[in-house]
Amino acid sequence: MNTATHILTASAVLARRNQPYRNTAILIGAFLPDLSIFALFAWPKMNGFSQSTIWRELYWQEPWQTFGAISNSFPIWLLVLSVGLMSRSKVMIVVAAAAIIHLALDFPVHADDAHKHFWPLTDWRFHSPLSYWDTNHHSPYVMAGEFVLCLAALVALWLRFSGWLVRSGLVAAMLSLIAVPVFFWATLG
Ligand SMILES: [Zn+2]
After folding, report:
1. What's the gap in Å between 103 CA and the centre of ligand 1?
2. Which of the ends of the chain has fewer CB neighbours closer than 10 A, N or C?
3. Where are the domains of the chain?
4. Cα dist from 58 to 17, 44, 52, 97, 110, whole Å
């Protein structure tokens, strides 16, 4: 799903009032699985590759497949969670929990672009019949569901946090949910 969805949902589940460290850790954990995607977007872009080359070719090649496998690995994040629990590191626990929520939401909505969610134990990928972006895999319905989910998370967070900084972040996250699909539709056609 979209990065903004992951940040909103993990925050709705885990964020607490007046706990800035915990809440920052949630943002980081919810974002980290998508780090490889942002690097894939930024690095080839700086080197002059086109949008369509990035997503239709480079995405499927190394090193991006391995980066994606690492950041989207249930075993790795469960390991981080266990180490956090054993060492009583709240930051580690919250980062891992936010990342696991991210993976759990992605798992049912990646079709052809499924991650190796259980790497390094196995290279198996769950190719879902549903996709959050691919119209060949019912994306309009998934997008509608994603939008409702985000709206619910947004309302929950809006009621929990009254500061202007958080609230403008919420508005920006909601706008990005519209902007990102429009950007890909306009550049990839
Ligand atoms: Zn993701």
Report:
1. 6
2. C
3. 3-188
4. 41, 9, 9, 30, 18
